[in-house]
Amino acid sequence: MRLSTSMIFDQQVRGISDSQSSWLKVGEQLSSVKKVTNPSDDPIAAAQSVVVAQSQSESSQYKLARTFANQSLSMEENALSSATSTIQDAQTLIVYGSTGTLSDDDRASIATQLEGLRNQLLGQANSQDSSGRYIFAGYNTSTAPFVDNGNGVEYVGGSDAITQKVNDSRTMTVGNTGSDVFMSISSNAKTEPDGSASETNVFDMLDSAIAALKVPQADADATTQQTFQDAMDKTNRGLSNSLNNVLRVRSDVGTQLSELDTLDSQGDDRDTILSTEMSNLVDVDYTSAISSYTMQQTALQAAYKTFTDMSQMSLFKLNS
C-alpha cells in the first residue's frame, strides 16, 4: 500500500493531538483533584457517585434534624427540672402545713408561699425556648398553653406532641404537651381512699390546699378540721402522683437525649464511610495521576520530536 505524504502528516498530527488531549486531561484531574469531572470520564463511577451524594445529603439532613431535636429536648429537660423542684418544695410545705400545732397565721403564711410556688409552676409550664416558642404547647407553639381564667388553670395548647424524624427509621417525640406533663398522672398513681378518681391537674391540687390553709382552724369544729385534713392529704397524694408523672416524662426525655447521642455517633461513622466511598469513586489518586501525567508528557514530547524529524525528511518536501 502506497502512503502519501498527506496521510503520514495527518497521522502525525492526530498522534500529537491525542497525546496532548491525554496530557491535558490528566492535568485537569490534578488541578481539580477529581478523576471524574464529567459522566463520560467514567459512566459507572459517575452513576454510583450520584447515589452516594444522595445518601450524604440525606445523612446531612438527619444530622440537622437531630440537632434541632437535641435543642428541643434539652430545653424541655431544663423546664422539667425546674418544675420538679417546685413540686417538691410544694410537697414540703403541704406536709408542714398539715401539722396540727400551727396557728392560723402560720397556715396563712404557708398558703402565701404555696401561691408563689403555684405561680412559679405556671410560669414553668409556659416556658419558652430561645425563639419564643412555647415548649409545652404541642404544635401551637405561638400561644401560651396554660391560662389562669380566675377559676383555675386550664390547658389551651395543642393536643398532639411534636415529633421529629431523626433518621430513616426513627421518629421521636421532641415536645411533650403540657396536658401530658402537668395534667396527667402515671398508671401506678396513688388512688383515693374512697375509690374516687385521683386529681390530675397539679394546679387544682395546689388551689385546693391554698383554699384549705386560708380557713381558720383555731376554734373550728371537728368537721371543719377533718375537711381541712382531708384536703391537705388529698393534695399531698396528688402532688406525689404529679411528681411521679413529671419524673416519668423527664426519664423519657433523658432516654431520647441519650439515643440522639448514639444516633449522632452512628451518623458520623456512616458519613465517614460515605466520604471514603465517594473519594474512591471520583477523587484522583495523586501517585497514579502524577505518574500518568509524566508519562503523557513524555509521550507528547516524543510525538513532537517524531513529527519534527519526519517533517525534515525529503518526502515532506515533495508534493504528493
Instruction: State the helix count.
Output: 8
Q: What is the name of the CATH architecture of the domain at 68-277?
A: Up-down Bundle
What's the level 1 CATH class of the domain at 68-277? Mainly Alpha
Class from helix and strand fractions: mainly alpha
Main sheet record: 2 strands, antiparallel
Q: The CATH topology of the domain at 68-277 is what? A: f41 fragment of flagellin, N-terminal domain
How does the overall form come out from the CA principal axes?
Answer: rod-shaped
Strand order of the largest sheet: 1-2
Number of strands: 4
- What distance lies between the first and last C-alpha atoms, to the nearest angstrom? 15 Å
Average residue-wise pLDDT: 84
Quaternary status: single chain
Strand content: 5-15%
State the share of residues found in helices, binned by percent: 55-70%
CATH superfamily of the domain at 68-277: f41 fragment of flagellin, N-terminal domain
What integer value in Å does the Rg equal? 39 Å
Organism: Candidatus Pantoea multigeneris
Domain Flagellin N-terminal: 4-141
Subcellular location: Bacterial flagellum; Secreted
Main location: other
